[in-house]
Known about the structure:
Elements: E1 3-4, E2 9-11, E3 15-22, E4 25-37, H1 43-48, H2 50-61, H3 66-70, H4 72-89, E5 95-105
Antiparallel strand pairs: 1-2, 2-4, 3-4, 4-5
Helix pairs in contact: 2-4
Amino acid sequence: TPSLGYKGIVKFPAIHTNILPTNNLKRYLRISPVFILEKEQALNEFTIKEALIRDKIISYLNTQSEEDILSEKGMIKAKISIKEIINKLLDQNKVSMIYFQEFRVN
Length: 106
């Protein structure tokens, strides 16, 4: 379950997912995202939609390769894409920024 921190900071549970194989080697990604919300009251909506948010993030990440996400540009693109995906799911409260406490490819 996501937890709301100071001033609309939501620490989302870690996400583990496969990414596209590199040189026929299976790869997976582990991220621990932190979302900065425009409004502090968004925790209820995040909690209600947590499974849907996780599913959409995983679906997006499954389409990415190691090369796509490990560069600085790739990580920025991933943050923007994930932010857009989540904001389409939220009714009133929007994500203004995403940080990763952990971002690891194995």
